[in-house]
Amino acid sequence: DGGITQSPKYLFRKEGQNVTLSCEQNLNHDAMYWYRQDPGQGLRLIYYSQIVNDFQKGDIAEGYSVSREKKESFPLTVTSAQKNPTAFYLCASRTDSYNSPLHFGNGTRLTVT
Amino acid sequence: AQSVTQLGSHVSVSEGALVLLRCNYSSSVPPYLFWYVQYPNQGLQLLLKYTSAATLVKGINGFEAEFKKSETSFHLTKPSAHMSDAAEYFCAVSRGSGGYQKVTFGIGTKLQVIP
Hints:
Chain A is mainly beta. In chain A, 0% of the residues lie in helices and 50% in strands.
């Protein structure tokens, strides 16, 4: 079955360390997205990519970086510059169309202490 | 800019009662609107989507939503709540800018179903 795989499910890091969250999809979708979820704030867009080797900043990109070297993969790096990195991170993908829905992975819960 | 507003971050209903979750959008053009559901520690699942083909949209698990342009609303309803409906629900809008397509979410509404 096609889907989106995020790994790991839980991630713990010390403050000051960079950490990379994995997102892989086998849905043959062109567009991929990273969201951050905090209680009471909904989902906020970090970065998105509509084609390989191209990506755009979302609403809260500071302290994050991404790459899109393959259609199937869209890893997110949380850098030490992110002031409050502890959160639930969701990756999603969809076809390159305004009316197509997002398909989500099961998320990675990052805790930085 | 297109966005969505969800009224009520928490809603409680009795089992068997009507579920009504509110979503209003701001848009200068006909929007593409979605409702998603999220269970604890999971990703989001699509409930239904509006794409201008019909104003009343039926989704999974007995949910439906009506697009009302005059009220700029896309409220989610279900005639009779079930315990398994307890979850968080998100309204979202698909929007484009300069050829790029974003999907923006509301803050979510947590639905509690009381036995």
